């Protein structure tokens, strides 16, 4: 996948994200320091490396949740590293992130129904009279019972919350998902169920993944190719054979 041939959905070239701190911002932490990779449509690139090597920073910079310091991010043939304002909002539906802790992105004051409906309303993705039908479809795709729609996040288990977070982002029909340690807070059985769900969704909707984890076994199971990261750089790539 990093070699070329097919057109990539995402191509990252010499990407850098440096954090500046201290008096006059002279201290620099080169969290991402010249990274190159590509991900084809419907494929998964796994990203592994020790804590603090820059995985999350890389994932967030690719999605433009963080401002890149240098380099380009080509998504579907377009350099998105320079986009601003409205164009970024549109991009926000095509690229999504799943976090380690779903609670951090689910509003505790909202019922599950509204959590999933919010992006539909915000981006006007569904007519009002079709909303209920679409939400029921989404909750079924993530294998949750419809009765959970009228509960609050605190009434759900960790695995159920992650499924709600997944249903919420699926409402936007993403083409690329950055999954940042999406199952590392879950017990092994639930972890396996969520990973299977993600794989199934990938096949069904041809979604590409940047799958971040410190757990090489999980990454091997999920990925077509693995990138090994150390101190802000990708030091090796490995194709996963099946
Ligand atoms: N908002 C920030 N401001 C300044 N420095 C940051 C910020 N976020 C991360 N860093 C630093 O950037 C480096 C990379 O951190 P990052 O969280 O990207 O690594 P990681 O590989 O995802 O680690 P983990 O597996 O523990 O999440 C670390 O030195 C970290 O302290």
Task: Describe, in plain words, how this protein is organized in 3D.
The chain is an alpha/beta fold and 242 residues long. The chain has one domain (8-239): P-loop containing nucleotide triphosphate hydrolases (Rossmann fold). Helix content is 32%, strand content 28%. The chain is built from 7 helices and 10 strands. It has helices at residues 55-62, 85-94, 112-122, 131-141, 158-170, 188-205, 216-222, and strands at 8-21, 27-40, 44-48, 70-75, 78-79, 95-98, 176-180, 208-212, 225-230, 233-239. Strands 6-7-8-3-9-10 form a 6-stranded mixed beta sheet, with helices on both faces. Strands 2-1-4-5 form a 4-stranded antiparallel beta sheet. Helix 3 runs parallel beside helix 5. The model has no long low-confidence stretch (mean pLDDT 93). The structure holds adenosine-5'-triphosphate (ATP). Adenosine-5'-triphosphate (ATP) is lined by residues 19, 29, 31, 49, 51-57, 214. Adenosine-5'-triphosphate binds next to strand 2 and helix 1.
Quick recap of the structure?
The protein is α/β, with parallel strands linked by helices. Helix content is 32%, strand content 28%. Strand 9 and strand 10 form a beta hairpin.
